[in-house]
Amino acid sequence: MRKGAFVAGLVVFLFCSTVLAQKAEVTVSLNEAFFDALLESVFQNFDPLEFTIADGGINHEAAEARRTSVSRFERASSFAFQRPTGHSKFCKESVKILREMNGVRTAVRFRDGKIVVPLAFSGNYAPPFVGCVEFAGWAETNIDLEFDRDGQRLVGRARVLNVNLNGTGGVGGTVIARLIQRSIDKKLNPIEIIRLDKLSFAFPVRNGTLRMKPLAARPELAAGLLNIHVTYEFLKG
User: Fold this and answer.
1) Lowest CB count within 10 Å: 61, 101, 161, 185, which one?
2) Can you give the pLDDT at residue 127?
3) pTM for this one?
4) Number of helices (H) and strands (E), helices first, in the chain?
C-alpha cells in the first residue's frame, strides 16, 4: 500500500513538474486598419510630434554640403524664404509630423516583408548665410523590428530612406533627409512597441494561481499584418 502511494505521489510530482516547465506561444496580430485608427486618434487628441533639427555638432564638410544643396534648393523651390536680419535665432529649426501633406498621409503599411511608413511633415531650418528656410513634404521611412533581450521589449528603429519636398523637384531632399534621420535617432530611436512585463497574466486555479510569464517576442510580417509571437512559461504563484 505504501508502495502504491509512493508511485501515485511520484506520478503527481512528475505531472506537476511537466506543467510548470511547459511553454506556450501567443500571437498578437495587428493590421493596417489598427494603425490607421491609432494614428487618427493620436492626431485628433494630441499636438503633432515636433522635434529639433538644429545642427547639434554637424561637421564642416556636412555644413558645406548643406550650403551647396540649399543654394540649389532655393533656386528650385516655390516656397517663401524668410531671411531674419543678422541671425537665425528667429528660426525654430524643427520638423513637425503631420497627418497629411498634399495627399500623402502618415501611415503604417506592410509591403514585401517590410514596414513602410510615409511621414508627412513641415518644418524650417537655417542654413549658413541663407536665413530661415521653410520646407514641407513627406519622408519614405522603414521600421526595422528587433527584440531587446536586456530590456525585455520589442522595439523598432526608423530609417529615413528618402525625402520628397513639395515644389522642388527633389532638390534639397538629401539634406533634409539627413537632418530628419539624425533627429529621429536622437529623439525617437529606438521606438518601444511592447514591454513584456505588461503582457504577464495570472489565472486563479484551485488552491493557488497559475501565472503566464512572457519570455521573448518574435515579430513576423505577413500580408497586411504584423504578427507578434510571444513565448510564455507557466509558473505557480
Assistant:
1) 61
2) 78
3) 0.73
4) 4, 14
Q: Which residues contact 149 (CB under 8 A, 6 or more apart)?
A: 216
* Residue 127 phi, psi dihedral angles, 5° rounding: -65, 160
What is the DSSP secondary-structure string of 146-157? EEETTTTEEEEE
pLDDT at 53: 86
Q: Is the peptide bond prior to 127 cis by the omega test (within 30 degrees of 0)?
A: no
Q: Are 106 and 117 in contact (CB under 8 A)?
A: yes
Handedness of CA 115, 172, 136, 192 (dihedral sign): positive
Q: H/E/C letters for each residue in 11-53? A: HHHHHHHHHHHCEEEEEEEEEHHHHHHHHHHHHHHCCCCEEEC
Give the pLDDT confidence of 115-154 residue by residue, as tens digits. 999 999 999 888 777 788 889 999 999 999 999 999 999 9
Rounded distance between C-alpha atoms, residue 212 and residue 210, angstroms: 7
Query: What pLDDT is attached to residue 65?
Result: 46
| pLDDT given for residue 169 in this prediction | 58
Please give the Cα distance from 73 to 176 (Å, whole number).
10
* Interior angle at CA 116, CA 113 and CA 120, nearest 5: 175
